[in-house]
């Protein structure tokens, strides 16, 4: 009940999803799914201490992908990107935790795998910028927009995490 209230409140007031309730959108792209990297990527976020609140395997429609990447519509690789992202199923996820947007981006590495340090997902598991296996929201505002785009409210689960006192002081 508190959770439902929080979600409704958060959709009206952006500041509600802050602190340990901050959320980000992460997706394993079609190449990551084909290459059997889903479990590994999930594992990294779990091991870090973030809380999974949404998860689904889906074939994203062209419309959804065009909305998702709307800011890149003038880029020369835009059409190619939409084709790549629709070439197979993706695993869409929402992760929650303190500073999750910023830390998830660090865990992903740079857009171009060649600039990504070993130890990051893109640094460890890919070589080509147009096959970079994973997406992560680049700001709190993008996270909010992307979560609303990819997930219905009732697909996001609020649950009590027993390990929380071992993750946060
Ligand atoms: P990020 O995914 O790191 O936030 P962008 O939002 O800039 O990066 O780009 C979105 C996606 O578009 C990238 O993850 C990558 O799949 C693709 N992309 C970015 N730059 C290029 C490029 N120069 N050539 C081909 N694909 C690209």
UniProtKB/TrEMBL annotation:
In the UniProt entry, which residues are flagged as the active site?
135
Cofactor dependence is on: Mg(2+)
User: One cellular component GO annotation, for this chain's record?
Assistant: cell projection
This entry's Gene Ontology molecular function terms read: ATP binding; nucleoside diphosphate kinase activity
The catalysed reaction is: a 2'-deoxyribonucleoside 5'-diphosphate + ATP = a 2'-deoxyribonucleoside 5'-triphosphate + ADP; a ribonucleoside 5'-diphosphate + ATP = a ribonucleoside 5'-triphosphate + ADP
Q: Where does the signal peptide begin and end?
A: 1-18
Q: Where does ATP bind?
A: 29, 77, 105, 111, 122, 132
Q: Which residues form a coiled coil?
A: none
UniProt enzyme class: transferase
Question: How is this protein named in the record?
Answer: Nucleoside diphosphate kinase
Gene name, please? Answer: NME3
């Amino acid at each position: 009940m508190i959770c439902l209230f929080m979600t409704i409140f958060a959709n009206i007031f952006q500041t509600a999803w802050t602190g340990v309730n901050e959320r980000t959108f992460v997706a394993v792209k079609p190449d990551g799914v084909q290459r059997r990297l889903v479990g590994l990527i999930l594992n990294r976020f779990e091991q870090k201490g973030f809380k999974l609140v949404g998860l689904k395997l889906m074939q994203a429609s062209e419309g959804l992908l065009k909305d998702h990447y709307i800011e890149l519509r003038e880029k020369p690789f835009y059409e190619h990107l939409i084709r790549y992202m629709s070439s197979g199923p993706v695993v869409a996820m929402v992760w929650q935790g303190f500073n999750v947007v910023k830390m998830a981006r660090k865990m992903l590495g740079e857009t171009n795998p060649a600039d990504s340090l070993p130890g990051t997902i893109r640094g460890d598991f890919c070589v080509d910028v147009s096959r970079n296996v994973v997406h992560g929201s680049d700001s709190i505002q993008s996270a909010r927009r992307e979560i609303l785009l990819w997930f219905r409210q009732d697909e996001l689960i609020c649950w009590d995490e027993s390990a929380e006192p071992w993750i946060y002081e």
